[in-house]
Amino acid sequence: MMARKRKGRDISGWLVVDKPAGPTSTAVVNKVRWALQAKKAGHAGTLDPQATGVLAVALGEATKTVPFVTDALKAYRFAVRFGQATNTDDAEGEVIAQSDARPTDDEIKEALRPFVGDIMQVPPKFSAVKIDGQRAYKLARDGEDIEIAARPLWVEELLLTDRPDADTAVLEMTCGKGGYVRAIARDLGAALGCHGHVIWLRRIWSGPFDVEDGITLDRIEALAQDPELDGHLLPLEVGLSELPELRCTPEGAAKLRNGNPGMVYPGDAEYGDECWASLDGHAVAVGIYKAGALHPSRVFVAPQSDTES
What are the C-alpha distances in Å from 14 to residues 84, 207, 209, 231, 273? Predict the structure, then answer.
């Protein structure tokens, strides 16, 4: 029995969405795929439903570059409400503890120091972390008392940027893969002895993608199945910007696209580095550089212009 052919356009690239509060990340991806009539789509890093900002949606061949964006640094701006802890660590949850204590600006700045660098973080109980094969949020909703193991997180920077009132602090954080802003708010409140939770959260950039370059969901819906929407796509190669680029010959590209090592021109890569090879500016493959050749781990379908004779 033949596999059913997936309907849609063979379209590749990145669409930077300025996600609104409300929809899930998966719902945004589905809306983008529908609007562009794309065969395949995915995203690089989940945002909670109430979070806003950069949700980078990959289409077609660009989905092969998702891990490189997911692994890149990301920046968040968020507000912490002091005096209350919630069971979800955000404003959607039930208040489970309260305090009349409020920290000073200097106390906040001092408390932020241990959260920078290599830290261990316990994800929120209402999160997508798996415990014995089940999502933590499902177990938490069912009332089960769960324990989630701490996991490492790199925090590049964590700053107090505004203090609208005694109850609220606005922070900006730059961190690596797998960080939970809600956990930062929870743990900061605990460190200050006053409790805390996130009241709003916005991802302002993710790897090479900036929120200022984002398109709103309303605009995507307005331009659905309109060629103008294609003009907002960024090349799939943007998703590889964290890796060194090495150029290859047409012969090397042909070998790489068949899954074999292909010769590349010398560049900024060293032996053993993960790199990507390009031909006429188009991504050919990602792989490991060894002795003048790239050993591919993933390959990209050639653009139409590359294959035309």
Answer: 39, 13, 9, 11, 25
Whole-number Å distance between alpha carbons of 106 and 153: 25
pLDDT in tens, 277-287: 999 999 999 99
User: What's the confidence (pLDDT) of residue 307?
Assistant: 43
Q: What is each CA distance from 8 to 65, 225, 264, in whole angstroms?
A: 20, 11, 34
DSSP letters spanning 200-254: EEEEEEETTEEGGG-EEHHHHHHTTT-HHHHTTPBPGGGGGTTS-EEEB-HHHHH
Query: Which of 48, 112, 49 is CA-nearest to residue 80?
Result: 112
pLDDT tens, position by position, 100-150: 999 999 999 999 999 999 999 998 876 666 666 667 667 667 666 777 789
Q: Which residues are catalytic?
A: 48
Averaged pLDDT score across all residues of the chain: 92
Extract the tokens encoding 104. Answer: 């000073």
**From CA 163, how far away is CA 171, in angstroms rounded?**
9
User: In terms of residues, how long is the chain?
Assistant: 309
Dihedrals phi, psi of 7, to nearest 5 degrees: -80, 155
CA distances from 22 to 52, 137, 201, 217 (A): 9, 17, 12, 11
What are residue 68's phi and psi, to 5 degrees?
A: -75, -30
H or E segment and range at residue 187: helix 181-192
Q: How far is CA 103 from CA 6, 33, 159, 261, 302, in A?
A: 56, 46, 15, 59, 57
Q: Let me know if 137 is exposed, middle or buried by CB neighbors in 10 A (0-12, 13-18, 19+).
A: middle
- Residue 309 has a pLDDT of 31
What parts of the chain have a pLDDT lower than 70? 1-6, 126-134, 136-137, 139-140, 142-144, 304-309
pTM reported for the whole predicted model = 0.90
Helix axes 181-192 and 105-112, enclosed angle (nearest 10): 120
Collapsing DSSP to helix, strand or coil, 19 comes out as strand
Amino acid (one-letter) located at 81: R
